[in-house]
Amino acid sequence: MNTARPGDYVEIHLMKTIYEGILLEVPKSEKGVVLLKLDSGYNIGFNKKNIVEIRVLEKVREKKEELKLEKDSKKPNIAMIITGGTIAARLNPTKGGVDWLTEPESLFKFYPGLFEKVNVLKVEVPFMKASEDMDFKDWQKIARIAEKLLNNQNIKGIIITHGTDFLHYTSAALSFFLGKVNKPVVLTYSQRSVDRASSDANLNLQCAALAAISDIAEVMIVGHASSNDDFCYAMPGTKVRKLHTSKRDAFKVINAKPFAKISQETIERISDYNIRNKNKVKTDLKFEDKVALVKFYPGQNPDILDFYVKKKYKGIVLEMSGLGHVATKRARLGWTKKLKEVQNKGLIICGVSQCIYGRADPLVYSNGREILETGVIYLEDMLAETALVKLGWVLGHKGWNVKEKMLENIAGEINDRLEK
């Protein structure tokens, strides 16, 4: 029993039953317990007193990953920015969870298909974070690195690996920070870590590599178009959302079309996009972080807005009902008076719809007109997350007319014609 270590593949013998799996580390708070990860993926705990024997079947391997990256002069060069997320993680057998692949060589060992079409000339690892741990300073850091890579003549495009949950915030931020790019900026991800047979990482990276050497000069997210391993979509960075917690095709384009359909061999154009060019990219990283996304619900007290005024917030994106309504003065907790009050104190309020598809329109019903007259800026079909990022970016520019800039289609965030 003493020879078994966390990470070893073992048999645990009880009086009448034998279990096989990976021995896990035990938290200090759970002394007297043995934890095992079964082949099914589930963890199970045993009281040490009930264990007859722990038999080691295979010792944990501690060999450092090594990989030589061969460069092929016939292949185009790309760069990668690795930031964390499931795509840069694998199972840690001693913990029963996943750890970051902190060395690029470790990452590349698991994704050899990436090199079929491209050379990875340069790799940057600014940080390794789950996407929920990022903020605007991380978006700025990625943008600074991307600017240098985009202006490097030896690099045809960039792949950025990223966590899924807040990926669309980063893609929106880069769309505004980088402006009109001269080469592809491709964000990609995986819903399932590479050690799982159902991982989506390999196809996503292979499609991302093709996108990175294409003529699509846009900030885009590339990922599975369906639950099958058949092809991916290249999706506009400001018009995409994660719509499922675990499906491989979790990201969908909202109120627009993908730029392209990408298989492992071909790219098929679907909608208009900017073409690769030789312009110099210059970042615009100004950002006001005192902005918030507030979701209205029936019966919500409008006094919540006083909190943001007290905390000196500069702007709010208010996620309202379908066409863009909140309770008005006719309701017990009407918002009309409070909306006027806080905007007179300098708080900018932008309105978006809680619906995934469609457009906010205050002119259909009288209560919408009432809200519009308070000064709320209705943002057409802009996604709530994109609107939050854009509002922070616009407010970072002190001399700008906020209403004009929020309603200006800067990075494809507003569509005149909605797609089904």
Textual characterization of the structure:
The chain is α/β, with parallel strands linked by helices. It folds into three domains: 50 residues, SH3 type barrels, CATH 2.30.30.520; 193 residues, Rossmann fold; 116 residues, Rossmann fold (3-Layer(aba) Sandwich). Helix content is 20%, strand content 24%. Strands 9-6-10-11-12-13-16-17 form an eight-stranded mixed β-sheet, sandwiched between helices. Strands 4-3-2-1-5 form a five-stranded antiparallel β-sheet, with no helix packed on it. α3 runs parallel beside α8. The protein starts with 8 loop residues before the first strand and ends in a 14-residue tail after the last helix. 41% of the residues are buried. About 1% of the residues have low confidence.
Explain briefly what this protein structure is.
This protein has 420 residues and is α/β, with parallel strands linked by helices.
Task: Give a quick set of tags describing it.
420 residues, 20% helix, Rossmann fold, 5-stranded antiparallel β-sheet, 21 strands, alpha/beta, SH3 type barrels, 8-stranded mixed β-sheet, globular, 3 domains
